[in-house]
Amino acid sequence: FMRFLFEWQHLTPSSRVSGVDGLRTAIAQLDGFELAADAWDTHVLPARVSGYDTAMLDLLCYSGEAAWARLTQPPAPSSSALLPTRPVRATPVALFLRDHARQWRVLASVDRSAVAVSDLGAAVLRVLDRGAQFVQGIADASAMTVYDVREALSELVWAGLVASDGFAGLRSMCPPSPARSSAGFGATGPPSPGRSSTGFSGTGGGRWSRLERDPLTAGTPPGPDRESSIETYAQVLLQRYGIICRRLLAREPYAVPWRELLRVYRRLEARGDIRG
């Protein structure tokens, strides 16, 4: 099965994909799966896409085909934790097809109102309540420095409360690492006035917005959507693994009972779409 999976997920030299179309295929297979933020650019996508370039991922994000976000619940901070300081590089982040944004948030079932944020983070969220904004626009509207806005955005990404139009927004807030800079994640060199202690540099990846204010997911209660979301998830799992069984759910981010997926698979089997 592992030999099959390497081929299925385009990890062998003969099965690797290429170009933007190939990257689209890889994202569709990993749709909704959470990994450490910097793993996407440095390990996961380059291993599957020949000649991978970070601009290819940015193109899919800016065109509205793909998106990124932390979808699952962050751990509760300890009382001594400094809220603005978060390990963004290790933050679990999902890449997903934007058409499936609603389904993944329904399955994640996270109460974002319970996530504690700092005063800076709360100020940025108040600005983003008015709609998506560039970093400089957030700074102007909140009377904060760009440095403080970037620190707050780093915290809010960790909390799963905001995301930017492009993956460059996430990429720009990771601390510099010479070992990883060749893959395009982060930047090399010593800290500069344009880079904060959390490593936020560059242009910020376009506009930033509140995830729960996303028009793609707002306005519909999770309850009525759950059944269709589970059906989408069942289809994506088949695309991800080729062969799906209960044990493969152990590393999946969503706590969907096997019995609910099994109902979908038996229905697909009865239609002749899959084989059990």
Would you write up a description of this structure?
By secondary structure, the chain is mainly alpha-helical. Helices cover 43% and strands 8% of the residues. It contains twelve helices and seven strands. Strands 2-5-4 form a three-stranded antiparallel sheet. Strands 1-3 form a two-stranded parallel sheet. Mean pLDDT is 83; it is low at 79-84, 178-183, 187-202 and 214-220.
Search tags:
43% helix, 276 residues, mainly alpha
What is this entry, summarized?
With 276 residues, the chain is mostly helical. It has helices at residues 2-8, 19-29, 39-48, 54-62, 101-108, 119-128, 135-142, 146-159, 168-171, 178-181, 222-241, 258-271; strands spanning 17-18, 34-36, 49-50, 66-69, 92-97, 162-164, 208-210.
